[in-house]
Amino acid sequence: MEASSQPHVVVVGAGPAGLMAAEAAAAAGARVTVRDQRRSFGRTLLLAGRSGLNLTHDEPLETFLGRYSTGRELVEPAIRAFPPSAVRAWADELGADTFVGSSGRVFPAAMRATALVRAWLVRLADLGVAFEPATPWSGFDDTSEHTVLALGGASWPQVGGDGSWVAVFRAAGFAVDPLVASNAGVEVEWSAPLLDRFEGTPLKNVAVSIDGETVRGEPTITAAGLEGGPIYALGPRIRAALARARPSLEIDLQPDLPEADLAHRLAGRRRSKDSLSTWLRRAGLQPVAVAIMREATDNRLPTSVDTLAALAKAVPLPVRGIASIDRAISSAGGVAAAEIDETGMLRRRPGTWVVGEMSAWDAPTGGYLIQACLSTGRRAGTAAAALRAD
Ligand SMILES: Cc1cc2nc3c(=O)[nH]c(=O)nc-3n(C[C@H](O)[C@H](O)[C@H](O)COP(=O)(O)OP(=O)(O)OC[C@H]3O[C@@H](n4cnc5c(N)ncnc54)[C@H](O)[C@@H]3O)c2cc1C
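^ inputs. structure came back:
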């Protein structure tokens, strides 16, 4: 493409979605500028990298796509075009040497998130991408530039976006679903003694249920309640339940053991001199598990094996709410699907795309978030480079 006919693509927001849009547009021959309100780029990736940068997930594509609980139509074509295998190949080219963890999660083996972001920024600079830090976006303008907006949701506003774009979009007449916390902890009222002993302790190998959906994993006790994979995965159900009433989670502390077998085991492991707690631990219940059983019964644990087994299979934990959005892993909600075409472009504002968490899809942790951001960014960057500037 001749320099004079090259479109100028301005990408605003330097998270995974924006940086990938910049790479795709520059690789397709566009002149590209990336702006961010922060002084440095890729900060959300650095934050995500603190707990291990889970880039995508290794599983059959149909299963993968089924993880998007809302807005699947917004991300599916982009993910099909740039699937998990392509994300791995892309990261490996940056030197990540990705590997699949035991749960199917894909991580870089060779480098930390800092090195990956650095390598990525070098690649973008080599492609001729210009960077404009400390440049906030505060509204649509009417230049003929092609603009890819990648402003993120509203979680961790001290690092990423604060969702202030929502008001700008609504004022311009676009439908935006409210941004709400997703992949967030739940608030549970723990007693002080439980927190003193068990704050930060995981409940190992349990199954958490609400409204007929069950997810296994290791939720962790926090000062505010419970955090971790199973809680995040149940988020959409918990949100729906909270909209109706004050719901309870049910924790199965021995998911591999049917209730009758657990009762049998409890009967067989009782020693006359044992305290109740020692007896329960002897039957395979970890101390933190016994503590939440006590909590659920107001410290009046039943003594019959059948009632104890029934309790251990379904400890009720009343949930007060979802943790606030500023500590959530991601945001649900965003620009409504009807506003966006198959490339991520705003139908009523040709030349402007929205990518990543800005649009109204939701998924659990496990690599599905970054994957959707990279895929939608890539799709929009490619389309922005291809659209002729008027
Ligand atoms: C602690 C934590 C751990 C995580 N771990 C993982 C993980 O392992 N795997 C995974 O898949 N996902 C993970 N996530 C989620 C993942 O980081 C996000 O889904 C992803 O970063 C969203 O990408 P994005 O590009 O849409 O937006 P963001 O990454 O939020 O980037 C938005 C960018 O836009 C800029 N911006 C916002 N508003 C403006 C404005 N008005 N003007 C200019 N610039 C603006 C922000 O400064 C920011 O740089 C994690 C999130 C957190 C908080």
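The chain has a mean pLDDT of 94. The two ends are 16 Å apart (CA to CA).
thumbs up if we can close this ticket
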